[in-house]
Structure formats: C-alpha cells, structure tokens
Specification:
278 residues; alpha/beta; 2 domains; 9 helices
Length: 278
C-alpha cells in the first residue's frame, strides 16, 4: 500500500481508497461486469487487502481486492507505478488464487476460473491500447485455446479514450482524473466522497502513513549504521526525530487533533505541540 499522500489528496486510483470503495458489493459487482463483459449473480465473499500465505517459507501476497462468486475468483489490483514486473506478478498471483481456492486432496476440477485484473495508470506494454487481455493458446494453432480457466487483464487509464466501450472508457477516464456524466461513474464518485468522510478510515490511513514513515526512517538508519562508526549515533537520532516530526505535521495538516496524534504515537500532547511549535 502506498501511503505517501495526505488524506485530502487521495483519489480512486490510490489503492487504500480503491479497496474501501470496492467493499461496496454492488459497486464491486458492477465494476467487474463492466470491465469483463460478464454477468455475476452475486458476490458471496468480498475482502479488501487480502493476504494469501500458503506456507511459512513461501512468498505471501497482499491483494488489493479479492472477490468470489459461485464458480469464479477475481483479484483486482490498482497499479500506479510501473515496476516492470507486472507479467511475472500476474502469474504468481494467479497461482496463489488457485492454491487459496482448492483444498488439499481435492481434484483439479474444483479449481475455479480465475481473473487477475490490473488497473494501471500507465501503459504497461507500450502499445497505446486501453486494455490488454491474455489467455493461453497453442502456438502451432492459435485457434486452439488451452481452456485452463485463467485470464489476465491489464487496463491502461492513460489511453482510456482508445476503447470503443463507453462504460470502460468512462470508468478508466474517471480513474485517470477525467470528469464524466456517466451514471455509474457519478455513483462511484459519490462513494469515494463517502469514504473520505469516514473519520475512522482517515485515522486508520494516517496510522499507516506514520508507520510507513517510521519504517523508512529505520531502514535508512540501518543503512547508515552498517557503513558508519558509532559516532554517527547522534546524527541518526536526529534523523529519527525529524521523521517523527514530519509524520506529526502531516497528521495535523490532515485535520487530526493533537490528542489523537499523541494517542496514536504514544507520546504526550506537549511533545506533539513542541513538534508543531505551538
């Protein structure tokens, strides 16, 4: 989860907001139906930021939005940075979905069809298309599909206007920051506003913001410690204090009270006021 923005700056393309919006089963169902051109009777299970960890020594994954219907499973990822490894990530995620849906000893027929969906704010393959769909087929006869029940779809919001599908174009355009009079997009925008009015989620986000800041500071300090002598300890402490002061300032600008900041950081209100120079 990328928590480098303050709460007021967050949009649908930020994975924290996207995951909260998709907790609304009706909206999640509509997004899937519009993007995949399928009908879903009901989503029997909805989970945001689902972690799949199949064994103690395997790489776990945290999925932005994980949902199922009776015979299909969907993973929806909001991707704002091009890390040049989406193809391999999609492969790994699809395998983890399979491991999560089939019990030990069950036949392969029990495997559900799986869809891994990346909504990218950039062109992941550089072809200028609004969407890229991948299925397995025979290289010798491309009309022969493997029919393994898997699909990987990458949407490119940057080139949202390159698709002829009005619903997909409106949705991708909205993620890209474009205004739309599309009824569903207006409903989606209203839901985003409702999420951002939720004080509990704002506090949760700000806690994550503070934790990530501390992790970054700790990582930086560990790097310094490895390469420098003990005489740098004073400078490292200063860096840690500056990192905490930065977190306090961001939380305060985001509308949190001094009392709430002190409670989250487990410090006194006087210390918070001192950092804010009040």
């Amino acid at each position: 989860m990328n928590t480098t923005k303050i709460w007021e700056e967050l949009e649908i393309k930020d994975d924290y907001i996207f995951a909260k919006v998709m907790r609304d089963k009706d909206i999640c169902k509509a997004v899937l139906e519009k993007l995949l051109h399928i009908k879903i009777k009901d989503l029997k299970y909805v989970e945001e930021q689902k972690t799949i960890d199949v064994s103690y020594d395997a790489k776990s994954v945290r999925l932005d939005v994980y949902v199922e219907d009776s015979d299909r499973v969907f993973d929806i990822e909001m991707q704002t940075t091009n890390q040049k490894e989406l193809a391999k990530r999609s492969r790994y995620y699809q395998g983890m979905l399979d491991l999560n849906t089939i019990e030990k000893g069950e036949t392969y027929r029990k495997l559900k069809d799986s869809y891994v969906i990346f909504i990218c704010t950039f062109d992941p393959f550089g072809k200028g298309m609004a969407q890229y769909r991948f299925e397995s087929f025979c290289l010798e006869d491309k009309s022969l599909k493997l029919e393994d029940g898997t699909m990987k779809i990458f949407f490119n919001t940057k080139d949202y206007d390159k698709t002829d599908d009005e619903e997909i174009r409106a949705f991708l355009g909205y993620v890209n920051g474009e205004h739309s009079e599309n009824p569903f997009v207006k409903k989606l925008d209203m839901k985003v506003k409702q999420v951002k009015e939720n004080k509990e989620w704002r506090a949760e986000y700000m806690t994550l913001l503070m934790r990530e800041q501390e992790i970054r500071e700790e990582s930086r300090e560990e790097g310094i410690a490895e390469g420098m002598a003990k005489g740098m300890a004073k400078g490292m402490a200063k860096g840690r204090a500056e990192g905490r002061a930065d977190s306090i300032e961001k939380m305060y600008k985001n509308g949190m009270s001094i009392a709430d900041i002190a409670k989250i950081l487990e410090i006194t209100q006087q210390e918070v006021e001192s950092c804010l120079k009040i």
